């Protein structure tokens, strides 16, 4: 019988009634939650720093090699699984958006960090030795603060997490970036944010260009210059990703998924999916179900 891909919130993974934050060393977390090796989804933000281990982990159907010194970030809704080879350790922090946002006046502060964009190219980062050496003690300090009942311990955890975000973000910024490139990066970020909110109802680059007050040619040039793909490909890739995520839920029929993504009919959706993925939606669902059952 087909099992639904589970969706976990922080409460379901914590021994205490805490729905905003879960902090742990990675090895004991794995020992307690062996069910998380199989494909699952999160309703929260998720950050892991590996200090030991090998194998692989998969985010939104793309596999990454596990390496000590690697940090990865996930946003709510992404699909995830682990396939470790031997002992694996490090640190894990699961947290809600409100855990950080309640501490800050700037709305959407996490959007400033590319690794929280959901773009897989920015999600998994192999830290240089000097950055790893600076970040690891911050995770240790977070564990220490989390174990305290001291006044403002939770605020100290927030501050330490922000230090981690900023240090990792600084590492990925090119100091030689010019103003024009910075403008284009901002434009691309705005385009991606629009796609995130409208991928099911706006499918043409020219319509996004209108919303951004630029020409379609300008939008396409920015995408090709920074991403190496066209604006249309960026839109289609996001639609494909959402289709894959929906296909992990057997309670949704192919017709329902097609409707939710605003395709005119099932055959058009199937044709789109097969052109992008080389297999039909039904074949993809069967493969995911088999992988989940292993």
Automatic annotation (TrEMBL):
SUPFAM superfamilies: Homeodomain-like (SSF46689), Regulatory protein AraC (SSF51215). The keyword Membrane does not apply. Signal peptide: none annotated. Gene3D superfamilies: Homeodomain-like, Jelly Rolls. Keywords: DNA-binding, Transcription, Transcription regulation. The keyword Transcription regulation applies. Residues 189-287 form the HTH araC/xylS-type domain. InterPro entries: AraC-bd, Homeodomain-like_sf, HTH-like, HTH_AraC, RmlC-like_jellyroll, Tscrpt_reg_AraC-type_HTH. PANTHER family: ARAC-FAMILY TRANSCRIPTIONAL REGULATOR, TRANSCRIPTIONAL REGULATORY PROTEIN. This is Helix-turn-helix transcriptional regulator.
